[in-house]
């Protein structure tokens, strides 16, 4: 419970957090001239430097959204109000690496405030094969509520029906191309739905929730906003002396670090059944992934593992060096990471607002080369082929679990090995684009007046020039989609599907041996 409440502290300031000693005020007002200046810089930078501004959204449409955003500016806007405009316009680019973030001052403020009132529900949302959207409860902060339990399907909130809610919230979520799976998964991440709902509609004292009961009947119930100050469990924890809140022997910093890393990358081996499970939540630097991969595949070889499950369904990407190393242990052929990797300009008209701009310019001069198409290509990755690992290379059956959170570098990994006979991709469409994305070098831009930041990808990455250019992610070979019963019993429905496939494969091999 405490872990969930801590997570919710990152919610928007309109949830009513109590002010700290910080001199920063989230209600600070900015003049029309200030927000116009920031918006002009924001638009100029995107139009000059974004490599894929018009990739999925035509220029005339993007111009329309830029103009729309300009018209929303007014005098005395708060950072939150201004950021809402930028978030909406940015989402229209259809680039999952181009996202808007709050200012550093706002982030610091939110880190020092007490937990305020919260939207009480976390949910899972998805689209079925009939394209109808579903919203189901996964967590109710009102622990004594016996009605809105896990798996309960919600059909409306405060008079807004499912289709209106999903369409509105989707309008503020950036994604690669036209990928709805990533947007659904974003809403399904713990606390995100409530955070975005509160950001757009504000907090209510009460919520009228329309839902479907266990008999299939449409019902409605009114529940209050969640106030942790009135929660006896939270109050009790706050009153406990520090000694009662910690274990008798507190873990060392090294132990804490190891636990954190285990939550992000973990190998589990079932030596009896010759099966292993590798969970990877990231490919980022700083988590000893190179060492982890080498030791893991050594253990797979040592234990004669025949079936390996690699779960990247929650992997948002990171360092391509790490994802490439993993690929080399799995791939049965030499491979390139990209067919094209290029920036559209070396110029930075507002370079002083772009983090690490000096290193970017230096990199562009020495590493990229302008070609006939007018773009600046990073030729090494366009030409270089990586070879499979020789030592401890895994040649057994591989099952890769994917989902809407599989993004960026994890999409590179899946795209490279999906065509192999011994690899089966199970789950949902990846959040990252199958054809490509805009990423690689992605500095923060800080707008001078409000301090609002946004990520600016500098390179367009074409992963596979032969992939469909339909703005979708890598499609699983075996689908494993959410269902209300699976949500209700908190099932890992993707892993269940993989275990069915492994069992079927073992039976097939045994039958072949018996026949022989």
Task: Describe what you observe in this structure.
- This protein has 516 residues and is an alpha+beta fold.
- The chain has helices at residues 2-7, 32-49, 59-72, 79-91, 104-111, 162-170, 180-188, 192-201, 232-239, 242-245, 253-264, 289-302, 320-330, 357-367, 379-383, 409-417, 484-488, 493-515; strands spanning 100-101, 121-127, 133-140, 153-157, 160-161, 206-212, 218-224, 265-270, 275-280, 307-311, 340-343, 369-370, 376-377, 397-402, 423-427, 436-439, 444-446, 453-455, 459-462, 478-479.
- Helix content is 37%, strand content 17%.
- Strand 12 (369-370) and strand 13 form a beta hairpin.
- Helix 13 runs parallel beside helix 16.
- The radius of gyration is 24 Å and the shape is globular.
- Residues 1-21 have low confidence and may be disordered.
Helix content: 25-40%
How large, in whole angstroms, is the Cα Rg? 24 Å
Report the biggest beta sheet as strand number plus sense, adding barrel if it closes. 6 strands, antiparallel
Count, helices: 18
Shape: globular
Proportion of residues in extended strands: 15-25%
What ranges have pLDDT less than 50 throughout 5 or more consecutive residues?
Answer: 1-21
**What is the terminal-to-terminal distance?**
56 Å
Give the overall average pLDDT.
90
Count of DSSP E strands? 20
Structural class: alpha+beta
